[in-house]
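Try this one yourself first.
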């Protein structure tokens, strides 16, 4: 519960107690409808206290859900990063294989100069 909610709750309780006290003190001295109206008014701040409590619970629930979603997002980002690293490694392997495959299918006329599998021109192998 925030400070503002606590302050409102204290104010609601104080008003409810004051109206209850006034209702008891004036019970026989004023008309009955007046005392009953004051008793009903003393119950109204209770609605405010309940409202502030519900709002505090909802704020807490939203904070918990945001924290959980943040953890899920961090886990998801880490999984995506791992997948990207694996995809990059797989792509490099595919590109390297394509270079050598191109060399075999072109009767050894095309080969990438920076390929690790390239053999020297003067090789007798």
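Now uncover the answer:
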């Amino acid at each position: 519960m925030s400070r503002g909610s606590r302050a409102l709750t204290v104010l609601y309780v104080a008003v409810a107690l004051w109206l209850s006290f006034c209702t008891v003190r004036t019970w026989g001295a004023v008309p009955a409808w007046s005392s009953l109206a004051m008793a009903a008014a003393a119950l109204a701040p209770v609605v405010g206290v309940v409202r502030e409590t519900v709002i505090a619970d909802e704020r807490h629930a939203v904070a918990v859900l945001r924290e959980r979603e943040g953890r899920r997002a961090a886990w998801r980002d880490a999984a995506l990063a791992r997948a990207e690293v694996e995809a990059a490694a797989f792509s490099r392997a595919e590109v390297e294989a394509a270079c050598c495959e191109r060399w075999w299918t072109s009767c050894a006329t095309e080969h990438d100069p920076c390929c690790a599998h390239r053999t020297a021109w003067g090789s007798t192998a």
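Discussion: The CA atoms of residues 103 and 111 lie 5 Å apart. Residues 3-79 form one domain.
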